[in-house]
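Before the break, one more example. Copy the sequence into your notebook; we will annotate it together after we see the structure.
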Amino acid sequence: MFFHSPYFNYSIKQFDAITEPKLSADYHRKHLEVLAAFGVGPLGSTLSPWYQRPAVTVFVAYDESDEMLAGIRLERLEQQPYELPLCHAISVDSPDLLPKIGRHKGRLAEICGAWVAPTARKRGLLQHLIGLCIDQGEKMQLDYLLAMPPQHTKGIFREYGFSPVPNALGRSEYCYPDDRYTSTLMELDLSLQPAQASAAFCN
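Here is what the structure looks like once it is written out:
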């Protein structure tokens, strides 16, 4: 299905990572390319074997030529808290949060691995993909969604109702993916959310 925005037409493909190794590999390659363009090396979210886990849903936007424009992942917590990519980022400074995350096994997921190709930025794609992750979380009857956006996308998550998650010292910001960036650990309580996430795309 193609979506018609004021800027261009695009389609969204949703798939389970473990059942679509070729698509997962293409998404992963594009993610690394976008990171490299910003001088960022492989992250915990790119090095983890997420493509081998049955609890990972991927959303990818394509243009009319079937080129990937943007992508995002929703990783459900199935085992221990260290399974989620953001847990690698917060484990040193916020070890107190890991048991709290672990208590929601099977009922919590992380939105991660988001990227947008340079030619498709500022066109509402990221908003649409985040909205689809929220919709999927509601369909999966999850209690919470977590995310760790950098400053330049933090506002989008706030618009969807995400709020910062402080550790025992009241800290929710981290130097991630490196010292040039500040990212914020955020959560969305799905039990408090109206089911309207997908309506926000292309705003």
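Residues 195-203 have pLDDT under 50 and may be disordered. The beta strands are 2-4, 9-16, 56-62, 68-76, 108-116, 144-147, 163-164, 173-175, 182-184, 186-189. Try to locate both features in your own notes.
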